[in-house]
Each structure stands twice: as structure tokens, then as C-alpha cells.
Amino acid sequence: MDGVYRYQRHIYDLTRKYYLLGRDRLIADLCPPPGGSVLEIGCGTGRNLIAVGKTWPHARLYGIDISEAMLETARASVAKAGMNARVLLAQGDACAFDAERLFGRQRFDRVFISYALSMIPDWQRAVAQAARCVAPGGRLEIVDFGPQDRLPLWWKRLLLRWLAAFHVTPRSDLGSIVAQIAREVGGRSDARVLYRGYAVRAAIRCEAG
Ligand SMILES: C[S@@+](CC[C@H](N)C(=O)[O-])C[C@H]1O[C@@H](n2cnc3c(N)ncnc32)[C@H](O)[C@@H]1O
Q: Residue 153 Cα, ligand 1 centroid: separation in angstroms?
């Protein structure tokens, strides 16, 4: 991933603003409990964590990413936003990380993954790992590219080709995998497409302990 983002990270937030749709709606919906914890998996430049920090000023924030280059940008952005005391960042693989070792805690009130599953080959494992990090009564929220099925075929073909150049593949079976993992962790799932299939939102709600 460092190879992908070494140079792109400098223009990442500006360019992605126009096509990583649904991120701000997810952030507005997070609604963590007062003093609650929020983990972003695949946090990239830290753009989302900073927005979470502004929207939910009492939340404690955690982020992991596999790319040290992205984390370097995230650390600088978090410092610039004056959020050093509230945000902990660590390098880790979404498919297998030890939250206790990285952050000193195993569970988080809210866990979210924004436009990262479409870049992770073993994304089902990443969803399972994320679900295990959700505290009782908490939620995992996901937003990513959708099936593009209600958009013109020429658009779908063009977009998929363009995304492939960035190692991105929309996960057409995201909803069914999320439902399966929700059953495994004893939670309830929900999935819906946004913007005529451009994006997809999925969630797992874990039972209160
Ligand atoms: C398209 S960016 C999205 C960044 C951010 N979540 C956002 O919405 O702007 C995907 C991010 O996922 C990270 N990533 C890719 N594979 C990963 C993995 N296996 N574990 C953790 N992060 C990963 C990349 O380094 C990159 O920062």
C-alpha cells in the first residue's frame, strides 16, 4: 500500500472528496455514547477520524492502517487539527491485528471501515476481525463502492476499469457476508445501496452485554 499511496497521499483528501460518497453520512450516524470509543480500520490520511472528532467531541478515537506513508500524513493532519490527545494511530493489517497490543483495549463502541474493504483481498476476514472488536451494544459501520447496478452500463464499465487501476474492487456480496458474520457474532445486520448503487452501507449491531 505504501507504493500506492507514497505520492497520492498528498492530494488524497482533495481528490477523494468527490467520489468517496457516503462517508460524512456514516460519521453523522455514528452517535457514540458520551466518552465512547471509535475505531476506524483503514483510516488513511485521518480525514474521517478528524471529522468524527469534530462531530462527536467527547469520543476517543483510534485508527489503524497498513500503510506507514498514509499514517505519516494522518499523524500530521491530526496534530494540525489539535487532536493529538484524542487520537491514537497504529500500523496494522485489517485482517489480523491485536487491538489490545496496539491500543490497550480489545473493544470499541463504534468501529467503521470506509472505502477500505474494496482494497483488501481477504476482505471477509477483515469484516470478521472488525466485528470481533465491537463492544456489547456497539456497532460496526461500513461504507464502500456499491454494485453500480442502477447506473448506466457504460458508467459501470468505466468506473470498474478506473477503480481496478487503483487496486479497488467493489464487493458485490458485501451484504450477504456482513449478514453471515453478524449471525456468527450474535448481532443483527443491515445493508442498503446508496446513490443508485454507487455506494453501499452495511452495519452489524451487537447485542448489549
Ligand atoms: C481508499 S483508502 C480509504 C481511506 C479512508 N478510510 C477514507 O475513507 O478516506 C483505503 C485505505 O485502506 C488502507 N488499507 C488497505 N489494505 C489494508 C489492510 N489490509 N489493513 C489496513 N488498512 C488497509 C490503505 O492503506 C488506505 O489508507
A: 27
pTM of the model: 0.94
Whole-number Å distance between alpha carbons of 3 and 66: 12
Ligand 1 centre distance from Cα of residue 130 (Å): 14
Q: 41-59: buried (b, 16+ CB within 10 Å) or exposed (e) per residue?
A: bbbbbbbbbbbbbeebeeb
Q: Are 77 and 51 in contact (CB under 8 A)?
A: no
Q: What is the pLDDT of residues 123-156, one digit of tens each?
A: 999 999 999 999 999 999 999 999 999 899 999 9
d(CA 121, CA 95): 10
What are the tens digits of pLDDT across the range 46-68? Answer: 999 999 999 999 999 999 999 99
Residue 157's CB is within 10 A of a number of other CB atoms, namely: 11
